[in-house]
Amino acid sequence: MCALAAVRTKYPHGPETWTGPTTIDAELRTSRVLKDAWVVSGSLKHYQDGICDKLLPLGDGPKTPYVWQPPTQVRVPRRADEGVLFRIEGP
């Protein structure tokens, strides 16, 4: 919801979508670091689906021009600092 609100603020006439080469990075900020990389990817799948729905119309399949980087984890000291950060960059 925060990402959609930010997009609406920056683009009041509708969000800008990307259909060309794009790199997507995900950062999970949590006080409890997950041990298995596949657990991290699975826990972020619903975020990925929402981003594709609103900003990346070609989806998240292997034949798209989008490069999804493996998610990274950052350990934070308090729950107030927890969250997920996605960075979408074009060429």
Structural description of this entry:
The chain has 91 residues and is an alpha/beta fold. The chain has one domain. Helix content is 29%, strand content 25%. The protein is built from 3 helices and 4 strands. It has helices at residues 2-10, 37-43, 45-54, and strands at 22-30, 66-68, 72-75, 83-89. Strands 1, 2, 3 and 4 form a 4-stranded mixed β-sheet that branches. The chain is globular and about 40 Å long. The relative contact order is 0.32.
Please give the alpha-carbon distance between the first and last residues: 26 Å
Most strands sheet: 4 strands, mixed
Low-confidence stretches: none
The SS-based structural class is: alpha/beta
Question: How big a fraction of the residues is strand?
Answer: 25-35%
Helix content estimate: 25-40%
Number of domain modules: 1
Keyphrases for this structure?
91 residues, single chain, alpha/beta, four-stranded mixed beta sheet
Please summarize what this structure is.
This protein has 91 residues and is an alpha/beta fold.
Task: Please render the helix and strand layout as text.
Elements: H1 2-10, E1 22-30, H2 37-43, H3 45-54, E2 66-68, E3 72-75, E4 83-89
Parallel strand pairs: 1-2, 1-3
Antiparallel strand pairs: 1-4
